[in-house]
Amino acid sequence: MAIEPRNVEDRLSRLEALTAILVAYENNFVDPESEELVYRLLRRSFRDGLEEDDFLWRRLFEQRRKFGASARDRLRSIEGAVEQMRGAQAEAARVVNQQASIKQRLDVAIDKTARLGKQQAELGQSVTANQHEAHSFLALLSMGLNLAEVKTPRLLPVRVYLRDDNSLETANVAKQVERLLSAFGFAVADDFPAESGSWWKKWFAKTTDVMTQPEVYERLQKIERALEMSALLKPQAEIDRNQAEAVQALLDGIKDQVHATVQVGSILVLKTTNANEKSIVHVRQLSQKQLIAIENAPELLQSPGKALELLGEACRVPELPGLSTGGTADP
Fold first, then answer.
1. What are the counts of helices (DSSP H) followed by strands (DSSP E) for the chain?
2. For 248-281, what is each residue's pLDDT tens digit?
3. Given phi > 0 = left and psi -120 to 50 = alpha, else beta, which region is 284?
4. What DSSP state is assigned to residue 37?
5. Long-range pairs for 7-14 at CB < 8 Å and ≥24 separation?
6. Of 11, 142, 239, 245, which has fewest CB within 10 angstroms of its CB?
7. How far apart are CA 234 and CA 272, in angstroms?
């Protein structure tokens, strides 16, 4: 039986419309609210015969709607699960980072605890040693022995005053003071915090071996002689090279200071600026009377000009070349 062209054309038109609608539903291009409009367009495209299949078409729409709704629900469920997984992954990453941070802080705390433990042990040993030395000294006093002739650890006061509190310069001077002490057989026993504004720093130095009082005095004389020879730019054959370098480094450390004071036991180094704005360095071996005056008023060292006035004008070292600086002397 031959197929009429009109029927073939209608059928192709219907097939195209149906294919378009199925594709639209498959890709969620048609929402439930638009279905009635689609149905009316479908009726117009099919022109004839749609009434006969009306029940079939509506069943088709209904099934597609259910399938589309179900697919959308599954898709949303999957998207929700993916979001939950991403959230869980982000939370896991946050927990891992937090654990790493905690571990890092714990490692720092463990290291700090170990260092504190070591410092505490060293401090305990130092306290024990100092206690033994103090008791030994008191025992010598109790027995009425001549302490000057007994070999025992000896302590010296060490003080430094710098008018200008420049952190780089003060750190260098502190380093050079300790270097000087080490070069002449002393070690820092106590290190006290510096007072700021101008720089006022105090230490106690201790001999690295037991000595009599005359031996300490002889060692201090070596420091005095080294300071004088270094300041006057004289040959230093009498001085150990290490000691000479330590002395020169200390003098270089205070060269940019307008006023400075360094006391190592009975040795006093004073740097002042005269009325002509030229710096002068003085090196002095203090007498017992002068030492007592300083111990009674250590703040005197914070004013080099007044210290010179009190201790007398006799200076071991004249004006030094190459040390001219600006500023005025203390009043």
1. 8, 6
2. 899 889 888 888 999 999 899 988 877 777 888 8
3. beta
4. H
5. 10/46, 10/47, 10/48, 10/49, 13/45, 13/46, 14/45, 14/46
6. 142
7. 22
